[in-house]
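README: folding subset

This subset contains proteins for which both the sequence and a predicted structure token string are available. Records are stored as plain text. Below is the entry for Bacterial Pleckstrin homology domain-containing protein (177 residues), shown exactly as it appears on disk.
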Amino acid sequence: MTTQSFILTPLAGSALWGAIGLLIGVILIGFFARRKPMTKTASAVATGIILAVVGLLGWIFIGALSPEARLEQDKLVLDLPAYSRIIPVSSLQLGEARVMATSAADAPKLGFRTNGVGTPGYNLGWFRLKGTDAKALVSVTGTDPLLVIPVDEGYTLVLSTPDGEALLAALHNEQER
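--- output ---
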């Protein structure tokens, strides 16, 4: 079987500008922190922390410019910054999977972020869904439709993608083999 690739919604628009603003803010904090009188050790530690945070956020935001989902043989490969996963198609509960508008009444609402990035217009990582204790691995950007797929391991995938219907159809075809 050949690999099939599906676009996930990239970081764009106001979410992209928010990410750039966050990076600039962290850099400014580092600049002003370095201007304060500190010991050499404290200065080196502060610089190291700021550089690590800028590097991590930069890596995540650059990766968020081209996220994708690939269907490779019997696996769904999610290429997400810092949260990439390989999920066997057999563990996806495709009977309960659905594509829906982000504004739909029954669309999953994100609650507490347990690990990840949450900025206006961009959510990536592990979240709890509002009103439940359910965990979700989330890559939600903008207003593109959501592909929602429960997984046997006890969490739900919530992905923004303009290719949701095509990806879901390809997953159904692969699971029927």
